[in-house]
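[agent] plan:
  1. take the single chain provided in the ticket
  2. run structure prediction with default settings
  3. attach structure tokens to the ticket
  4. add a short note for the reviewer (M.T.)
[agent] executing step 1
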Amino acid sequence: MSSFKVLLCAVALALTEIPVDSFFGGGTSDHNAELSKAELTALYNSPVFKAEKMKRPLLGVPFMLGPFSHSGVRVTLANGDQWLIHKGDNYGQSSQTVVVNAEHMSSKWKVVESKKFDGRKRVADFVEAGGSEFTWWDDNCHKASDNMMNQVTLADGAQWLVHKGDDYGKSSQTVVTRASDMSSGWEVIGERDFEGTKTVGDFVKVGGTDYSVLFDNCHHASGRMMEQ
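[agent] step 2 finished; step 3 output follows
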């Protein structure tokens, strides 16, 4: 029993040596101060053709263990330039999601997911999806990375929520609303790239016109839409 207590104390001591914000923020701002205002504006307006979710160990830690790591998204532009968009405590001024040149990334960063955007989203859209505020428990680097990778877009970059509920609509209980009206309480639990093979009308049709709490609710509708 005594040796077990000693082990627990050793683990607790090791954890206290790492700042709390490092668990989900990375421990360094890497804030990009290299660009002029005009260059930064041009960068933010640049279309993204490829996005890669990346992870690395926390500073001073030789391994990654689930959420005890730092994550971000590396984007590739039309000219091949690559930039890292990531989030952390006090990383920026107006936003805690910042953009840095991918050349500064160490070899410890590893790709965990890749997705083509084909110019449908700009760098600014990724920064917006990452979010301006940071909290280590529910709005950290991992949440920001997931939000960036899971952006749902039309060809013009617009985002819409297709969902179903009792008395949501008139001719159909599956309705379409602007994604910009969604609260922060929404969380992504699945994603799929349709590559333009379905229309918004297809999603509404699959969602169904009628509503039943037990047999045809929002969960049934969402499942059908994703499984088209």
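[agent] step 4 note for reviewer: The chain has two domains: 21-151, 152-228.
[agent] ticket updated
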